[in-house]
Specification:
The complex is a heterotrimer of chains A (about 90), B (about 100) and C (about 200).
Chain A (H helix, E strand, L loop, with lengths): L27 H15 L5 H9 L3 H6 L2 H15 L5 H5 L2
Chain B lengths: L9 E4 L18 E11 L2 H5 L7 E9 H5 L5 E7 L3 E3 L5 H4 L6
Antiparallel strand pairs in B: 1-2, 1-5, 2-3, 3-4
Chain C lengths: L4 H19 L7 H11 L3 H13 L1 H9 L1 H6 L14 E5 L4 E6 L8 H4 L4 H4 L1 H6 L4 H7 L9 E6 L5 E5 L11 H5 L4 H5 L5
Parallel strand pairs in C: 1-4, 2-3
Helix pairs in contact in C: 3-4
Classes of the chains: A mainly alpha (about 90), B alpha+beta (about 100), C mainly alpha (about 200).
């Protein structure tokens, strides 16, 4: 489906900004999100395609506003709720 | 099952916009390109994202002229596409594969 | 590390979910740290640079690399198996008439197992949207001005393969060793947004 991730060929995005000497992760939590996702996929809680699908289902405005690993974390929590691992309330600590 | 297409074959991508996850980028929908080479065999991502188990199918590198995709540009864009996304374009026998229904 | 409120808030949420997963037996003790360490110790652009340098000095290796990259990189002790599963690698080589550049328009597919984490610009909507439509302008933003008659081939990593570019060997490097040559190759060169 034509979703917000499918940006190839779209016009209007700005010039590309390159960061010099960029680290692999910009904060500890990003590394933790990365590792959490690979652990959950390896355990079969969900697969990589389900993960991509969950990123793509983000509301377009939220997708464009989120940083890369913020998108990942949103998709992880979406899937944990949908797979019945935890309720949305448990996931947000509410 | 043998690969349906080989290097040099002209192919047209589907115009269908399926509900849910797909790996056919919208800029490459309904376009005619040429198969460059095989990219192996894998279960269709669309099915895996829906939790369906399906047998592997052929995946190809398909090269498009930028002008075919965007109406402008002198470069090429090579997209990696599952066989399900493709039908034979002009140059193949329409009787044999029965898929040349659009002109 | 950013110390702003947004970053602190999400760091807390991530910690919360991590604790929850540990309690439910979906994360082992120390597993997160182990996975991060393994990942950071794994891929690096230096791997791609070694492959490029070998391809420059050994034409037969270059041929094997372009025909079957997974097999060829094994010859220099590298593999695409560091991720969730072994991935197919497709290597393309620049020439004086053709320049290759790689993108993943749909998400962020990149040869992480080989090259390590991808740069943020590679994952940006700006790069993903624009490079397929107007690669010459995008490459110019990276400071790469290609001659008008150089053909540009963009590769969209839309399925299972991961891609790497072998840059052109710079002029005046005939006297350099393979290790010295590898030192010339950058991450952007291996993606195709730099000459080398």
């Amino acid at each position: 489906m034509s979703r917000i991730n499918d940006v190839g060929g779209m016009v209007g995005f700005p010039a590309i900004v390159e960061e010099t000497d960029e680290p692999g992760f910009h904060a500890d939590w990003e590394a933790h999100v990365f590792a959490m996702n690979s652990a959950l996929i390896r355990r079969g809680v969900y697969n990589l395609d389900e993960f991509r699908d969950a990123v793509e289902r983000m509301p377009p405005a939220a997708y464009l506003e989120a940083s890369y690993y913020e998108k990942w974390f949103a998709a992880i929590t979406t899937l944990l709720a949908e797979k019945g691992v935890a309720t949305p309330e448990e996931l947000t600590g509410g | 099952m043998a690969d349906r297409f080989g290097p040099g074959d002209p192919v047209r991508t589907r115009t269908l916009d399926p509900a849910g996850h797909t790996r056919l980028p919208r800029y490459a929908r309904g376009a005619v390109g040429e198969v460059v080479e095989s990219a192996g065999r894998h279960p269709l991502a669309d099915d895996r994202a829906r939790g369906r188990s399906t047998p592997p199918q052929a995946v190809y590198h398909v090269r498009f002229a930028a002008a075919e995709l965007f109406g402008t540009g002198d470069h090429s864009v090579t997209v990696e596409l599952w066989e399900d996304y493709l039908e034979a374009a002009a140059g193949r026998d329409p009787v044999q594969d029965g898929s040349d229904h659009e002109r | 590390m950013s110390g702003d409120h947004a970053s602190a808030a999400i760091a807390g949420q991530v910690r919360h979910v991590e604790t929850l997963l540990e309690r439910r037996g979906l994360l082992a003790d120390g597993e997160i740290d182990r996975r991060i360490d393994e990942f950071l110790a794994g891929g690096s652009p230096a791997n791609g640079a070694r492959i490029a340098a070998r391809a420059w000095v050994d034409p037969a290796f270059r041929e094997r690399l372009l025909a079957d990259a997974n097999g060829a990189i094994g010859e220099v002790g590298l593999s695409m198996s560091g991720g969730i599963q072994e991935q197919r690698l497709k290597v393309v080589a620049n020439s004086d008439t053709e320049h290759h550049v790689v993108v993943c328009t749909l998400c962020s597919c990149y040869p992480i197992a080989l090259l390590g984490p991808s740069p943020t610009w590679y994952k940006s909507e700006a790069y993903r949207s624009r490079v397929v439509r107007d690669p010459r302008a995008v490459l110019a933003e990276f400071g790469l001005q290609l001659p008008p008659d150089t053909r540009i081939a963009v590769w969209d990593a839309s399925a299972e393969s991961r891609y790497m570019v072998i840059p052109r060997r710079p002029a005046g490097t005939a006297g350099l060793s393979e290790v010295e040559l590898a030192g010339l190759v950058t991450r952007n060169g291996l993606i195709g947004t730099a000459a080398v």
